[in-house]
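Need VASH2 protein's 3D structure for a figure. Predict it.
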Amino acid sequence: SRPHCCLDSVPTRYLTNGQPSVERFPISFKTHFSGNYFHHVVLGIYCNGRYGSLGMSRRSDLMDKPLTYRTLSDLIFEFEDSYKKYLHSVKKVKIGLYVPHEPHSFQPIEWKQLVLNISKMTRTEVRKELEKFARDMRMKILKPSSAHSPMKERSRGKSLSPRRRQASPQRRACRRDKS
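Structure prediction for VASH2 protein:
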């Protein structure tokens, strides 16, 4: 089932597209309350060394957060504390990569580059993971997971690519000449 997209990426992408200094990325929360699980998505924003969010919710403290949080973990913990007020316990947090600023981009949104099972981690562990991820994001080291090919171990002498017909000697010579 699709998470309740409180602010689907389409409107917010356009609201902030003209602001290249504002980086946008999806944040989703899985919470538990009264025997049921709930999903909530907001758009995380990063600008001038501060974090905040844009979103929509019936609860004012579960949507927009001002650009005042020094670290990504401060922002996430603020959401966690807000959920506690409504007796929801946060089980998982998923954070995606920056959303491109190009309005006509066909690049799919990377919704879950980092997945943290918060209910099984200490706050110190969560902070450490979030800050490492945030640092890599700011340096734009992270690439969409779809760009990564799965790692396979090679057996000695075996190729991972499908078998191809042997090229004729004449074709091999032409390849060498071109290089």
